[in-house]
Every structure is written in C-alpha cells, then in structure tokens.
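Hello,

Our lab assistant flagged a job as stuck in the queue for most of the afternoon. It eventually completed. Since we weren't sure the result was trustworthy after the delay, we are filing this so someone can double-check. Below is the sequence as submitted and the structure that was eventually returned. Let us know if re-running is recommended.
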Amino acid sequence: MPLVNNPAEPPLYAALTAAGLPKPLTLTETGGDNRAAKKNWAQRFSNALAMTLADRLRPKYPKARVTPRPDGTGQEFSVGAKVDRKRTDVGVWDDAAGLVAGISIKTYTFRDTLPAKGGQPAREGRYVKNVKRNDMELRDEADTLHRRQPYAVLAALFFMNEDACWDGVTGQSSFAHAVFTFRKRTGRPSPDARFDLFEHAYIGLFDAAGNVRFFDVRQAPRQNQPPSDAQTITLAELVETIDDAVVYRNTGVSRHERFADDDPGWTAPAGSLPTGLEAEAELTLDAVIEDAETTESPDT
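-- returned structure --
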C-alpha cells in the first residue's frame, strides 16, 4: 500500500508508523527473546524505508523506473540472471543506461539479547552481533551488482537507533563499531574500480519520533557519544549526494564544479581569436551536465 510522507512530520515518521507503533519489546515480559515479533517489525520497517527513499528519488528521475513503486509494489529490484541474481532495496533503472543507482538498506533496530546465565536473567546488550554478517552481505551485493552494472552508483544505508552512539560503557559504542566495520565497504571512485565497494555508505541514526541524520562512515566517530551536527547530513542532503554521484558518473563533470581564479593581469593575445565569437551562445558547465553526449568534430 502507498506510504504517505507528510513534509510537516519527521522524515521517518511514516515508515515507523507503517512498521507499527509501539515497536515490539526486545525481550518479552517473561524474559524470552521476542524474535518473531522483532523480525516481522524489522521487515516492515525496511520495506517502508525503501519506499521513503524511492519517493525522494522519483522526482529526480522522471523518465526512469524507480522501485519500490508508489503503491508499494516492486520491493527489491532484481539484477542479473539465475546464476548471479542479486536484489537491491531501491533501484533506479533507465532503459538505455541500465541500473543508474541502487540503495541497499540494512536495519539494526533491536538490541542484542543475552541469554540467562549463572543465575542471572536474560538481558539486552549492544547492537553488534549482526554487523559483521551485514558487512558480508553488502560485499556480496556490491560485487554482483557492479559486475553486471559497473556504472551504477550504489549506496549502503545502515539504520540504527541513536542510543547505539552511547552504549560503549566498556570500550567503543555500537555506532563506532559499525562505522569502523563498514568503512572498508565504501569509496568506489570509478566504474573500473573494485566491484565489492559501494560508492557511498552511511549510518542513519534515528529516534523514536522519526528524526534521522546520516553519518558518512569515512569520517571519524566519537568513541561513546553521538556525532556532531556538522558531521551528519539530512535525508534531503543524502538524496542530493546520491544524485550528484550519478551526475558525475554519467557526465564526468560535477554540478558543483568551480573555475580556478582568473589572473587579473592576463589578456588574450591580439588577433588570436576569430571575429564574431561574442555572438555565439554562452558555453557553461551546466550545458555540459545537461547534454553529456559527445559531438563529433574534425579532430576526432
């Protein structure tokens, strides 16, 4: 079913509501692992997050096929054949260019459960048990997708509760642990670089109200505190970052490109330019980005 995102509400409020509030308890009232309820809630939340991201990307690619679709169908876009089929949670597919962008979503929304031991009851722990497994899954996803679609811009988003930033009572926090684990999974610079890397990897820290901010894992985390506001970006800024990477990958020019400073004492040599150039249309970087097709010239 459609996901209704209200701009007046926090960015992830609709996704949390779709998953179901209140969120299930990590441990049941009798101290058991609430495994089934947690798994079902996490899957609903992940699906709703994919719809949230797809809805944000859709206006930027009006001619492309963006999944999930607005009605909620098309979850997990598939790339490849039977031998190497792999899915991405959010896909931007162009019939001419292929997979333009893909977003893999991982969630870690419930603390680890530690069983009863030595006369002590079961208790909640940190957010660490599944981080290594998620890293291996991301490596496999990036490798398969990039082998099939080397020009695709892939982003890995790992969503964690914000309290993962300060649970390092003995050592670093769960958030810092995730940052260091996923750092080696990001930074793919070009289509001919390693296939098992993502172009971007961010940890999305969210609260119970649906507010979220994203931390680039290439930065240094605080040991046992949340990152500063200056270290994080909003959901809108994240979408712009992904789109910027798509533009650069497919045109070779960043929309944020700037000219070097002119030399105020330099002038063109007299007679070095043909007459009438001033009548031609202005040549701008925006024009290069808008029309990335190569025009043949006598020099090719």
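-- support follow-up --
The delay was a queue issue, not a problem with the job. The result is valid. The radius of gyration is 23 Å. The helical segments are 13-19, 35-57, 131-148, 174-182, 235-251, 285-290.
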